[in-house]
Amino acid sequence: MAARTTEPEGTHETPVPQRLLAVATRLFAERGYDRTSVQEIVEAAGVTKGALYHYFGSKDDLLHEVYARMLRLQQQRLDAVADSGAPVEERLRAAAADVVVTTIENLDDAAIFFRSMHQLSPEKFKQVRAERRRYHERFRALVEEGQRTGVFSTATPADLVVDYHFGSVHHLSTWYRVDGPLTPQQVADHLADLLLRALRP
Question: For position 24, which CATH number holds?
Answer without folding.
Answer: 1.10.10.60
